[in-house]
Amino acid sequence: MERRFRFLTVGYSYRLTEFEGALGLAGLADLKANISARQKNAERLLAGLKSFERHLQLPWWPEHSEHAFMMFPIVVRTRRISRDGLTAFLESWNIETRPLFPVLNQPVYRRLFGDLEPKYPLATFARKNGFYIGCHPTMSEKDLDYILAVFQKFFSAYDFSGESSLA
User: Fold this and answer.
1) CA distances from 73 to 4, 17, 67, 100 (A)
2) Is residue 150 in some structural domain?
3) pLDDT single digits (tens) 145-161
């Protein structure tokens, strides 16, 4: 697990300062526009990554709901590639990624509750194979096209004939 995403104590990263509060209040003024832009970006990513759905699990949500897309989650579901290999490739092309991680494997929760991962195999699968890419409201069409082109470059390097799914 990456050091920057390890939580050793309860409450880590839950502090709010006056400055963060002011930023939050200022952000409320643009909330609808930001969510709309994030949703538009996510629609473009979903459409552009659709051809890779055999290899990637893309986000979905029920029709009666909407998604704000603070980030864009992806889970690798093919045995021929690894999350770490894909994210290293994306990072080498300056596309920032973050691992998707449920809190079950965090040191503080292991200490408090023991090893819960065997009880939650889907959360474990998501932790091992999932990651996020950006979906922020200031991304341009050019940015999104670049991301999709890099995914295309990655997948064009593989022959997936006879390959089986992780799921």
Assistant:
1) 19, 28, 12, 7
2) yes
3) 999 999 999 998 876 65
